[in-house]
Write a structure and sequence with these properties.
heterotetramer; A: alpha+beta; Aldehyde Oxidoreductase, domain 3; 4-stranded mixed β-sheet; 4-stranded antiparallel β-sheet; 4 helices; 36% strand; globular; B: alpha+beta; Ubiquitin-like (UB roll); 5-stranded mixed β-sheet; 3 helices; 29% strand; transferase (chains A, C); EC 2.8.1.12 (chains A, C)
Chain lengths: 149, 83, 149, 83
């Protein structure tokens, strides 16, 4: 039931995060999710700035991971979220879950991402060739929570 | 004293990251605080009237009906967009 | 829509598979699943042998991945499955999916694993401190398919 | 000639990985082939009667009612357990 929560500017290495997660010999499944800065359809994306609420972010992520550990039988859980300025194709977020059975791993990974998207205090601002824009919250992200309620 | 924080687009629109409010011993709701701040500035008023705003007391998301007292940390911010 | 299907004895590196998947600049999400040889509750597991039906395995995995690509908007998809003798905590299977949106990635990853478990011709034999046993198919794996039908 | 393959526990129980059957121009179903093989050996009979057995023709999973003709590759095996 180990829990690793990191909020940081520097990049992270999926390879070493995965190696950490696979150490638990009782866990036959490791599910990972990585979110990347993606090209925009409308304009050229130059960079993205991630603002956060220091202190609350770590608490919110810990709460979400703990809720997942209470809901499913999990081994180690890792959540890493970057802040500051990121370039296209850089890594933003990593969620990794070790579990005995694959269904719990997939469900917990998606649950954590769905709650992170709606409850963790991060905000994205896109710097594009046509100006700077705060990213709007998506209705589809709110809808995603219904599945777990 | 109540510490009030603003984040992201709201912080930019207000031109302010944090302020303080002397509660003078009162227990108010987060919504009361929002109304009080709005009444103090016609510039702030439209931005604080945004019904999408979220609110955290002592770093936990709460509804606007949540009470705040001296020493609390209250934060207002737009819907989150991380991940 | 690139597809990478590998059936091999040697181990694979999740790090390089992930790096390959994240190259698609239109894809903001990478979901990976890795299955590992896990300890047994009943006896000490010494090793596991994976038998397969050469030729049919590659075809079955290609069919499953193609079905996922038809069902969801996906970028690159990778499936790697090892055969031969594996030791406890060794990697058995890797499924990786790049997608524009996370829901498609999670769903496609789980879909591929659920079909692989029921339709791809691999068989596990456990070599334990109390003897050799062919692993029995699980009812829960059959039940998992219902979700997609 | 029909090529018939056996895998995993079935291969071990039969003590045989592959065999051939001369169809003599007939079109049989996979189930007909299974019955014919069973009738040829009392040792094989109980193992081929396992109702959980899966069947592939030319490397595609098919029901036992699927037809086979000369030149096909037919395989019988227990439920799969990979992943």
């Amino acid at each position: 039931m180990s829990l690793r929560i990191v909020v940081q500017q520097p990049d992270f290495a999926v390879a070493s995060e995965y190696e950490r997660l696979r150490q638990d010999a009782r866990c036959g499944a490791v599910v990972t999710f990585t979110g990347l800065v993606r090209e925009l359809a409308e304009a050229e994306l130059l960079s993205m700035t991630l603002e956060h609420y220091p202190g609350m972010t770590e608490q919110a992520l810990t709460q979400i991971a703990t809720a997942a550990q209470q809901r499913w039988q999990l081994g180690a859980v890792t959540i890493i979220h970057r802040v500051g300025t990121l370039l296209p194709n850089e890594q933003i977020v990593f969620v990794g879950v070790a579990s005995a059975h694959r269904a719990a791993g997939f469900a917990a990974g998606e649950f954590i991402m769905d709650y992170l998207k709606n409850r963790a205090p991060f905000w994205k601002k896109e710097h594009t060739s046509s100006g700077e824009y705060w990213v709007a919250a998506k209705v589809s992200d709110q809808a995603a929570l219904k599945r777990w309620q | 004293m109540l510490k009030i924080l603003f984040f992201a687009a709201l912080r930019e629109r207000l031109g302010c990251a944090s302020t303080n409010l002397d509660l003078q011993g009162q227990v108010l709701t987060a919504r009361d605080v929002l109304n009080q701040l709005a009444s103090q500035s016609t510039q702030w008023q439209p931005h604080l009237a945004d019904t999408d705003l979220l609110c955290a007391v002592n770093q936990h998301l709460v509804p606007l009906s949540h009470p705040v007292t001296a020493g609390d940390e209250l934060a207002f911010f737009p819907p989150v967009t991380g991940g």
